[in-house]
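Researcher: Here's the sequence for the chain we discussed earlier.
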Amino acid sequence: MKKLFIPLFLLILINCNKSGKQQEIKSDLVEIISEDKAMNYNAPPAQEIPVEAMVSVKTVDNEPITSKTQNTISKKIIKNGDLEIQVGDIKKAHQQVNEIVKSNNAYVQTERFNNTDIDEKQFFTIRVPHKNFDGLINSFSNGIGSVLSKNIASDDVTEEYTDVSIKLANKKIYLEKYRDMLRSAKTTKDMLEIQENIRELEDEIDVAEGRLSFIDDRVNYSTLNLMLYKEKVRSSATSKIGFGNRFGDSFTEGWNSFVAFFLGIISLWPFFLLIPIIILIWKKWRNRKKKE
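Model: Thanks. This is the structure I predict for it:
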């Protein structure tokens, strides 16, 4: 009886150790996720911020792994502008724009031209290094034509950039931890679950890195929407400013309106043919009533 009891006791003890290790792995994963959520609610304020992310994770053997990321994030300011300028010659102004853009190390991202009976408009979307943005605006305002409107906006994205950077650093730490767990996984089920977590983390890391790259691009290169406007000269011989010329314009416009009205009445001639027929029918009906 004792010989049977001793092997049975050893078997139970081994199974308890295995289940304890599996429970410890699961608790480690919960600890990682809870630390991630805690970090999400503690983003530093928007200023020149020393970003320090400290994450401590226990391995299966209870040996702590500490990762520390230390760097300084300067203020992230995105500057955009809209500028409308009236010019005397679109082609000449276009050449001036190209020269100013080149001298400020900028480039034209998109360009569009509209030509109507009353005006010409040339549209530009210009990307310029952040430090040259104000100089570019001043060059356009002073050297091309008359400014019709100007709108400059600045957007401080330091807080967003800091928050995304901290989350990205932590996710990379969690990713390495999951990879370590994958190498030590014992069952196929555990391997599949850890691989799924790794895939989700890799997708989140790609999104975060893409967002940081987009913000860096918008911060490093400001965007200016420029419109050149030219009003066309009227082709009429009486277009010059003055009472006599205005009187001639008014007389011409009145005559044109009369002609248009007369032609409109003529276009209704089928209805005029119906009038005598309607009058004849009405007279016959009235005569019949009198006889009755």
